[in-house]
Structure formats: structure tokens, C-alpha cells
């Protein structure tokens, strides 16, 4: 079975501080991992995917197969980053989501 | 762009009645759509995979006779909650897969999955 774990339901940081949202996964194969974001009153949207190795809105995430992790990081958080973040794994033709982390960036 | 719409955005119905929720891909054709259910402050749980022209694939624990899915065209999938009960009250979200430029197959890397805004169902 595939599983995604986000250990933190809530995370608060001050503006300008670094932020890291944790994600661990379980999958017997080569996974594809994603981070989705849901801003207040908006739909879920893709933030980034591990295969692209890209940085979106200053966020990056590195797949660590040894630790089975895909943590999302940003060196300097902004207030507009406040949102719900979901880590997701694609395998066996379905997307499995973590429970999500509500990030609040304080002024 | 790629836009997925859902209708209605919210609905209140009486226990025992049926409710139909539509999911449309507005500017692309989607051979595959997914239906999710989201409880308050919880994650999205996949209910079923809707494939155009064929029967939906339901996840374990999801009653296919209760949650009827029809994917009659490449731009429309419907979810009908039959004989709704208060415990069916939830936020239902659909997503549509837009074929990308990558290779087809089991990888999502060649595809984009776009989400609808969700439908809030309240059964009284």
C-alpha cells in the first residue's frame, strides 16, 4: 500500500524565517511525488513535482529515497505563503494525499 | 490554461433523496477524472476513478451503488449520491487529467491533474 505522512497539522513561522514542511512516504516502487497548495477559499493546485527539480514561489523539495522523504522548504517565508499544503504520491495510477499541513506565516 | 468546474458549488438536500454533482473540464478533454471526498480538516480521500466510456473504478470501502459515477463524455463526469444520509455530508472534489507531452502510461509526469473547486453537500 502507498502512504503519505505529514506529521505536522499546523505550522506557524514568522515572516522572513525559514520554513520546512515535512513529508514522508511509503511505496514499494519508484514514486512520483508532488506538493499541492490550497489557499483560503481556492481550489487545490499543483505547487511542484520532484521530477521537475524546480523552484516555485521560492519553494523547493528534494526527494530523499534513503529517508523516504520529500520535505518542502523555503528559506524566507512570506505572509502570502499561508495556506494548506498537501504532499502527494502518484503510484499505481492514483494520487495519494497526506493529511496536510496548515502553514501560517505571521507578520 | 486548464479549468475544471463543478456544479453545484453547494447543495442541501433531505435525507433519502439523491443528488447529482457535475465535473467538467472546460478547455481540454479528460479521459480520466477522479472523485475525492474531504472531511473537515482532513485530507482528500480518493473515492473512484472515472474513465470515459467505461465503468468507474471504486476504492475499497466506497459503495458503488450509493455513489454512482458516469463519465459519458470527455469533458463531463457526474457523481450521484443516491439515498443520501447525513453521514454523506462532506466536501466532494473532482479532478481531471490533462494529457501532457510526456509519454503515456503509468507515469503522471506526462500529465497534469487539475482540480475542481469542490461541492459542499449537506444532508439534513
Short characterization:
The complex is a heterodimer of chains A (107) and B (124). Chain A has 107 residues and is mainly beta.
Describe this structure in words.
The complex is a heterodimer of chains A (107) and B (124). Chain A is an all-beta fold and 107 residues long. Chain A has strands spanning 3-5, 10-14, 19-21, 24-26, 32-38, 45-49, 60-61, 72-74, 83-91, 94-97, 101-106. In chain A, a hairpin with a 6-residue loop joins strand 5 and strand 6. The model of chain A has no long low-confidence stretch (mean pLDDT 92). Chain B contains no helices and eleven strands. In chain B, strands 2, 4, 5, 6, 9, 10 and 11 form a seven-stranded mixed beta sheet that branches. The termini of chain B are far apart.
Tell me the β content of chain A.
over 45%
Unreliable runs of chain A: none
Q: Count the helices of chain B. How many?
A: 0
Radius of gyration of chain A: 13 Å
For the largest beta-sheet of chain B, the strand count, sense and barrel status come to:
7 strands, mixed
What is the CA-based Rg of chain B, rounded?
Answer: 14 Å
Q: Percent range for helical residues of chain A? A: under 10%
Number of distinct helices of chain A: 0
Main sheet makeup of chain A: 6 strands, mixed
Number of strands of chain B: 11
Indicate the structural class of chain B: mainly beta
**Order of SSEs of chain A:** EEEEEEEEEEE
The most extensive contact between chains is: A-B, 21 and 20 residues
Average predicted local confidence, pLDDT of chain A? 92
Spatial gap, N to C terminus of chain A: 41 Å
Which overall shape of chain A is indicated by the principal axes computed on the Cα atoms? Answer: globular
- The rough form of chain B would be described as globular
Beta-strand percentage of chain B?
Answer: over 45%
Amino acid at each position: 500500500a502507498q502512504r503519505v505522512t505529514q506529521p505536522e497539522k499546523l505550522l506557524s513561522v514568522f515572516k522572513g524565517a525559514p520554513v520546512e514542511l515535512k513529508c514522508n512516504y511509503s511505496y514499494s516502487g519508484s514514486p512520483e511525488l508532488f506538493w499541492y497548495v490550497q489557499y483560503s477559499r481556492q481550489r487545490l493546485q499543483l505547487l511542484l513535482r520532484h521530477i521537475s527539480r524546480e523552484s516555485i514561489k521560492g519553494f523547493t523539495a528534494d526527494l530523499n529515497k534513503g529517508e523516504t522523504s520529500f520535505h518542502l522548504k523555503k528559506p524566507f517565508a512570506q505572509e502570502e505563503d499561508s495556506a494548506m499544503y498537501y504532499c502527494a504520491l502518484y503510484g499505481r495510477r492514483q494520487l495519494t494525499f497526506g493529511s496536510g499541513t496548515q502553514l501560517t506565516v505571521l507578520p | 490554461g486548464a479549468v475544471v468546474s463543478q456544479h453545484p458549488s453547494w447543495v442541501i438536500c433531505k435525507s433519502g433523496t439523491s443528488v447529482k454533482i457535475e465535473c467538467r473540464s472546460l478547455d481540454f478533454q479528460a479521459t480520466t477524472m477522479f472523485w475525492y471526498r474531504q472531511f473537515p480538516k482532513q485530507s482528500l480521500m480518493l473515492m473512484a476513478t472515472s474513465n470515459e466510456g467505461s465503468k468507474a473504478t471504486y476504492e475499497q470501502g466506497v459503495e458503488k451503488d450509493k455513489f454512482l459515477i458516469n463519465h459519458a463524455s470527455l469533458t463531463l463526469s457526474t457523481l450521484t449520491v443516491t439515498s443520501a444520509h447525513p453521514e454523506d455530508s462532506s466536501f466532494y472534489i473532482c479532478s481531471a487529467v490533462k494529457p501532457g507531452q510526456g509519454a503515456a502510461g503509468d507515469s503522471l509526469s506526462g500529465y497534469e491533474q487539475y482540480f475542481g473547486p469542490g461541492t459542499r453537500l449537506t444532508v439534513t
